[in-house]
Design brief:
Distance between the termini: 12 Å
Number of helices: 1
Radius of gyration: 12 Å
Shape: globular
Number of domains: 1
Structural class: mainly beta
Oligomer: single chain
Largest sheet: 5 strands, mixed
Strand order of the largest sheet: 1-2-5-3-4
Strand content: 35-45%
């Protein structure tokens, strides 16, 4: 599955837009590989959703909204 997610996140009171390509199917136990514009910041996210009691993500929109807080200039995210 492939999905293009657009959104904004707040950085010091400024709405910063993002546009991220997402790949794969989100499962209850999904981890995510994050690719950033600068490959130095590429990494895996294995922490789950800190905003959920079960630590699960329900949608790609939730995944993107959380991960943009932790990674700079995300280009794509893959469910692994």
């Amino acid at each position: 599955m492939e999905k293009h997610v657009n959104g904004t996140f707040d950085m010091d009171g400024v709405a910063v837009p993002y546009s991220i390509m997402c790949y794969g199917k989100i499962e209850e136990n999904s981890n995510f590989y994050v690719t950033c514009e600068d490959e130095e910041f590429d990494d895996a996210w294995t922490e789950g959703n800190p905003n959920s009691v079960q630590f699960t993500f329900a949608s790609w929109e939730e995944v993107c909204a959380e991960l943009v807080k932790h990674f700079p200039d995300i280009v794509e995210i893959e469910a692994i």
